[in-house]
Amino acid sequence: MQTRNTQVMFYLLEDENLATANDIGSLFHCACLQAAYFYRQKQKVFIYTKDQDKAHDIDEMLWTFNANSFVPHNLQGEGPSYGSAVEISWQNPTGRRPVLINLTDTAPDFSGQFSRVIDFVPSDEVLKQSARERFKAYRQLGFEVGNQPFPASESA
Predict the structure, then answer these.
(1) Residue 37: is its pLDDT beyond 80?
(2) Of 46, 65, 42, whose CA–CA distance to 117 is shortest?
(3) In the prediction, which pLDDT does 153 show?
(4) What sign has the CA pseudo-torsion 100, 101, 107, 108?
(5) Where are the alpha helices (DSSP H) in the chain?
(6) In b/e form, how buried is each residue of 97-128, taking b as 16+ CB within 10 angstroms?
(7) Of 28, 73, 100, 133, which is least surrounded by CB within 10 A?
C-alpha cells in the first residue's frame, strides 16, 4: 500500500544543448546529473535500468560524467552494508530510498515506495510514445505527475 504521495517528474530531452536526445549516452548523462543533484541534497537514489548491461553502463558513467564531482554509487548488492548514496540495479530495490530514476520503458510496479520518481521523454517519436504510456501508468497509480524541460543549467 502506498503510504505517501509519490511525485513523478518527466524531463523533456529536446534541448539542442543535450547533443542528440535520442542517444542513450545523453539520457544516461541526464540521469547522472539528476543523481548528483539529489546526492547534493543528501537524498539517496535508486537508478533502475532495463538490464544488467545498462546498469553497468550507468555505473561506469557515474565515475566519468563530471571530472569536478564525485557521486558515491554502487550496483545493488555491492559496496558498503549501509548502502552508498546512489544504488543501481535492473532488479527490484531491496532497501528504502526516497528517489527513483527510471531508465526503463515501463513504470516500475514498485514506484509507490518512492516519494519522487524521475523519468525522461526523449525527442524520438517511438521513445516519446513509450514515455506517454509511462505517464498514463503513473497517473493510474494515483501519483502526481508533471513535466518540464531538462534544466539548461544542468545540461551544460
Answers:
(1) yes
(2) 46
(3) 54
(4) negative
(5) 24-40, 52-64, 125-140, 152-155
(6) bebbbbbeeebbeebbbbebbbbbbbeeeebe
(7) 133
